[in-house]
Amino acid sequence: MSRLLLLLACLCLALPLRAETFIQRLLDRPVPGGVAVIDLGEAAAAPRASYRDRPVMVLRDGQRWIAVVGIPLGTAAGAQSLQVQAQGQTRRVDFEVGTKRYVEQHIKLANQRQVNPNPDDLKRIERELAEQVAAYRRFTPGTPSNVFLDRPVDGGRLSSPFGLQRFFNGEPRNPHSGLDFAVPAGTPVKAPAAGRVVLVGDYFFNGKTVFVDHGQGMVSMFCHLSAIDVKVGDEVPRGGLLGKVGATGRATGPHLHWNVSLNDVRVDPAIFIDAFKP
């Protein structure tokens, strides 16, 4: 009997103290440019959490509260921490960030201004960037309709992945901040989750662009569109039409570029459609 009890005790020690939540299994990819899903425990009311001085998404998953945190691409592997406020107290919750290597991509552009903009272009780009940064920094209280997202276009292969170190005509530029879908011009672009249209524009680099706020810091951006079928303030349902694929802005051909942002951090959209590659 004592041997049996010892065996059972060893088995209990070998088991995890707490099973992963449903959303953790789907989304927890704690690498630079990825998502950390962090258990915040049980409580009657939702705790509040922040990471790098930005509020982060907090959801109930089963009986527990979790934080869904975007990790910047430039984050070094190792320990990171959230600040969590609950029941009048503030505590630190640590989590680990792993490593991930992103590859390079070399692109040739015929329009040299899309590589080295002139002074007037730079003024326009600065103005447009400010509009887009403000859209990404929104944090509205509503819970997203779904955090495991639908693909914004039907069919098509995933072309340029998130995180590519890009070179235009041999010159290094910022890493690719979204996911590209190689689909024909005119393909309908649909909302991957319900939300409110918060920005519409025709930008120097992005071309015709739509931003959708899904709630709690989750913001989607769709660009290089040939047509836009929504306006600022529109409430769009999951699957609602946003526009059509095109090649406007800095694009070498028709495709959809899709960004997903959490807590003002651009993260790999592939995580949300079960297409992530470690």
UniProtKB/TrEMBL annotation:
Residues 175-269 form the M23ase beta-sheet core domain. It comes from the Bacteria. It holds the Pfam family Peptidase_M23. Residues 29-100 form the Peptidase family M23 N-terminal domain. Residues 1-19 form the signal peptide. Coiled coil: none annotated. Keywords: Signal. GO terms for molecular function: metalloendopeptidase activity. This is M23 family metallopeptidase.
